Amino acid sequence: MDNILFDNHIHTNYSFDSKEKPETYVLKAIENSYQEITFTNHNDLYPANFKTAKLDWQTEYDVPAYTMEDYQNEAEEIHMLNEKYKGKLVIKHGIELGLNVECMDYFETIAKESKYDFILGSIHNPWNMQVDDIYQHDPFTVHNMYFTTMRDSVKAMIKEVDVLSHFDFILRYGPTDEYKTLDFPKFKDIIAETLEITIQNGKGLELNTKLITSTDKNYPHPIPQIMALYKDLGGEILTYGSDSHRIDQFADSNRKLTIDYAKSHGFTSLCTYKDHQPIHHKL
Ligand SMILES: [Zn+2]
Ligand SMILES: [Zn+2]
Fold first, then answer.
1. Which residues, in sequence order, are CB contacts of 51 under 8 Å at separation 6+?
2. Distance (Å) from CA 241 to ligand 2 centroid
3. Domain coordinates of the chain in residue numbers?
4. Which residues of the chain form beta strands (DSSP E)?
5. Which of these, 12, 22, 55, 167, is most buried using a 10 Å CB contact count?
6. From the CA of 123, how far away is ligand 1's center (Å)?
7. Gap from CA of 9 to ligand 2 centroid (Å)
8. 10 CA to middle of ligand 1, Å?
9. What is the DSSP letter of 56?
10. Which ligand does the CA of 16 lie closest to?
11. In angstroms, rounded to a whole number, what is the distance separating the alpha carbons of residues 61 and 45?
12. Domain 6-282 is of which CATH architecture?
């Protein structure tokens, strides 16, 4: 029986880049016999516009960045949905934190003042650069910016998160194929260092299917070489996330492909989280 009927990375209208209502996902999850979903809305912080402002590319969405007030409202809505659909689906409250070592104080505030079930850590804007500026550089420089930001953020902040989301996010976008293909041997050491810190701290990686839908690749984040390295270094914790921003991206055929991908790299389980502890579900 397929017992991997969960999704631990979903965006709703609490994210600046999604308009989807939480209940829309709940209904589709129940329709597809899911056991659990986790809403993980964006909270990206940048020193120049700390807490409430937004980046230029976000201005097409007329909402401010995620605040503690959003947290309270979202918590209440999730509580209401859990009551309404009791016995049919478990709905968890997570967040996707944009890791930024210059905003450490705010991360500590979040940890103290909120009660998230699950915390994803992501790098969306290496070196605090906006997407259009990043791609002014050549592919090697872009990949180097990204993986050094990831390594330095993980070194400083791994304790603040449960799982690293889309570990090789930078391969998802870019003006040409060179930006979407990693010269892996050149980055193996820095990636290994990052993964070792992650594993030593009992944290995990996410299998994120957005890479499949955004490129012509037939596997999720992270790429096969990173999966193999993670396994070799003793990595065991993997979660599943569709990274849906719209309902048509949720509960699609990429789930089956992702399970096969995990198995093909020797992984025997996928995890959900309770109280920031992984629960393994056998594949
Ligand atoms: Zn993300
Ligand atoms: Zn996301």
1. 45, 65, 67, 106
2. 8
3. 6-282
4. 6-10, 36-44, 90-98, 118-122, 163-164, 204-208, 238-241, 269-274, 277-282
5. 167
6. 7
7. 6
8. 10
9. G
10. 2
11. 16
12. Alpha-Beta Barrel (3.20)
Query: Which residues make Cβ contacts (< 8 Å) with residue 44, sequence separation at least 6?
Result: 55, 65, 97, 98, 100, 122, 124, 125
Overall pTM surpassing 0.90 (yes/no): yes
Report the separation in Å between the CA atom of 164 and the middle of ligand 1, taken as the mean of its atom positions: 10
> What tokens does 37 get?
């979903």
Q: What are the tokens at 68?
A: 């503690």
How far, in Å, CA of 23 to CA of 12, rounded? 9
Query: Per-residue pLDDT tens for 218-273?
Result: 999 999 999 999 999 999 999 999 999 999 999 988 888 999 999 999 999 999 99
CA of 11 to the centre of ligand 2 (A): 6
What residues does the ion ligand 1 have nearby, CB within 5 Å?
122
| Residue 192 token pair | 């290994």
- Measured from the alpha carbon of residue 18, the closest ligand is 2
pLDDT value at residue 45: 66
